[in-house]
Amino acid sequence: MSMDVVGLLHLKSAGWWLGAVSGVALALAMAQMPLPIAVPATAAALRLAVLAYLRPKRAVQSCNVDQNGALTLVRGDVRIPFLNHYRYIRLYSAKNRAIIYPSMLVLYRDVKPSMWT
Question: Is the pTM of this model over 0.90?
Fold first, then answer.
């Protein structure tokens, strides 16, 4: 599924859970080690889980696309304009049961998107 895009897009990071879950699992495994090894290893694994959880909070949370193909990235109150204008912008969506969510934003400058490009 694809569609042409103009307007405001809200972005969600789905990869944070992989780092958070693996960090917690690694911390649980490190807690089983002997005490001199377990303390620093468990702390490092828990730090990995916390950083993986907090990382998407600092990432771009939405994107505004105007009629001319100019992109503006938005994070909180900060707006970051792209210097390039893209002639064709296409959003690919994925469908999970009854929920449709954006999965990939593709930017083309010169060539109209097709199966070959």
Answer: no
